[in-house]
Write a structure and sequence with these properties.
Blueprint: H1 4-15, E1 19-27, E2 42-52, E3 59-60, E4 63-65, H2 69-72, E5 79-86, H3 96-99, H4 105-115, H5 122-134, E6 136-138, E7 142-150, H6 155-159, E8 163-166, H7 167-178, H8 181-184, E9 191-192, H9 198-209, H10 214-224, H11 226-229, H12 236-242, E10 251-252, E11 256-258
């Protein structure tokens, strides 16, 4: 089961049109010396493998739900694959094998082959080489990135090509953009999604119903969010005792942009 920080990121990616697989394991069956009895070891694990299809849009009438430019820009008309790590607490460096991905190209090939978005030919080899060297590949109809979600970026690894998305920037997007657009479009305040996790609904309860500036709402979400705790671990009763202004609702706001 994914921890709450990973679940938080998965929902952010879902709002931006990505389908996700959790806890994807790269098996190390080729490393005979590390096989313990009949147990095959793992080389690494990806917290999320997330993919967005090239023409993805969520449209209601003539209004398009907004996406976050920091994650979707540059992927227009491309199948967009994210190899994701979610780092709670102070950790923000790649997993050990990804720190030296250039010496583990077979690991990259394992992941890309599984996702099946590039035929196994010269383009496949070239893409995997680029990912292992600079943590990304952009082709004519495909984009692949190694992405770390964390409290703050790791400056050295960011310079090496690792894409970083901070928890705070996710919260700002959810609260300031998606959380305000029903109102901005004069369509209402919130929509109903009782099937969605309570912590997601609570984030949008702050965006939709709490008083104060957008900056204050972002800060209120951070009080129980992954930026401060690493994980979203608060129970509903604890959360409500900390933020008594919440209305007991399952409302969720959705942002729109006009479609061309």
């Amino acid at each position: 089961m994914a921890d709450r920080a990973t679940e938080f990121v998965r929902w952010y990616l879902r709002f931006n049109g990505y389908f996700s697989i959790e806890a994807f394991v790269v098996h190390a069956a080729d490393r005979v010396r590390k096989i313990n009895g009949d147990i095959i070891p793992e080389r690494t694990e990806c917290d999320l493998l997330s993919i967005r299809l090239p023409y993805s849009r969520e449209v209601a009438e003539n209004l398009c739900m907004a996406n976050d430019p920091q994650i979707v820009d540059g992927g227009e008309g491309k199948t967009d694959l994210l190899i994701c790590e979610v780092k709670s607490g102070k950790d923000n460096a790649p997993n050990p094998v990804w720190k030296h991905a250039s010496t583990h190209r077979d690991m990259v090939e394992y992941i890309v082959r599984f996702c099946g978005i590039i035929p196994e030919n010269e383009n496949f080899k070239s893409a995997c080489r680029d990912i292992s060297r600079s943590y990304g590949f952009t082709g004519e109809d495909t984009r692949i990135r190694y992405v770390i979600f964390s409290r703050i970026p790791h400056e050295r690894h960011q310079k090496r090509g690792v894409t970083y998305i901070t928890f705070r920037s996710i919260i700002e997007f959810l609260v300031s953009i998606r959380g305000q657009s029903w109102t901005a479009a004069k369509l209402g305040v919130a929509s109903q999604h009782q099937q969605w996790p309570q912590f997601v609904c609570e984030i949008f309860n702050i965006a939709n119903h709490a008083t104060g500036s957008l900056e204050k709402k972002v800060a209120d979400v951070e009080k129980f969010g992954p930026v401060r705790l690493g994980l979203l671990l608060f129970s509903r009763c604890h959360f409500e005792s900390q933020l008594p202004f919440l209305k007991p609702s399952f409302s969720l706001s959705v942002s729109f942009q006009r479609c061309n």
